[in-house]
Amino acid sequence: MADSYWIKRQLDLLKALEKDEEKVKKRLAKLYLQDAQDLEREIALYYQRYGKDGVIEFRRLLENADPAQKEQIWKAWESFTAQNPEYAHLTPQRENIYKLNRLEAEQESIRLRAMESAARDEKIITAHLSKISERTRIGTNIRGGAFHKTLAEIASRPGRVTAADMSYYATEFGVRDYLITDREKMAKYLQTDFAQGIARGDSYRTMTKALSERLQKVSRKDAYGIIYTEGTHVHAEASMEAIKADFTEYSFSTYNDDKVCKICRALEDHGPYKITEAVAGVNFPPMHPYCRCRIEPHVSDWDKWMDDYVARHSATKEEAQKMAGDFQ
Ligand SMILES: [Zn+2]
Ligand SMILES: [Zn+2]
User: Fold this and answer.
1) Which stretches of the chain are assigned E, i.e. beta strand?
2) Where are the domains of the chain?
3) Which of the four pLDDT bands, split at 50, 70 and 90, describes residue 152?
């Protein structure tokens, strides 16, 4: 069924989704640049406060942090978790904040910034996934007849983004956990870069350049990976949602170019699979980070499928034939 209407539609839809993806990536890249600039300003204050001739003596950072600064960190955590209660478990113990030395206080501030960016990105990414889901469902909805709408019609509808959908992707798709894990890792890198830079006697300029590059590079890598991989997941799940009432089996489809890996190739060769037995990462996309595979409905006996379709939907034989034709 290489040229079926369904497959053509799927490929067109994926192309439209890639455009959305580019937009989100651009938006995030801008935010990471801002994050880097904010961090630079904070480091500048640090050098002003503790430095001399543009460098900081490491010893000075091992002194007990200023009480006002500790209070500020605690207040910042409080207001962050008041707005993002799902991140409350990441809050450090209050008494530990009050034990921080100057170096640790700055490191804690770096970590808080990383978590603030995770919470912000979670909203942007889950809204994007909700949109993919909505478009895929509209674009492939067989019974609603939306399957036959043009892509322009679908694209002109604003994607429905509800709080419930966003929360579903944040938790069930693990977007929040991915972001938290990756940003904790990033914060550790930055904290180490910062401590080592001070110990080496790095100037403000050398320090901020290194931190800024690190922050932008790591954030982009994390976020793009999630957008790409979970985009595949949402697309596959929404396709499944659209076909599961009328089909019992699906085949696994790769892009069929030279980038396809052995795992995905083998799944494509091996199918079909039962819809009720689909498990993401086992026989259902995505199989791994950056997987861009999809599913297609599979039918071994089209005559029987058409009879079933007529019975299930009180449709005419012609309607069933037309529908079957879209998949053959
Ligand atoms: Zn693969
Ligand atoms: Zn794949």
Assistant:
1) 51-52, 55-56, 249-253, 273-274, 294-298
2) 5-234, 244-328
3) low
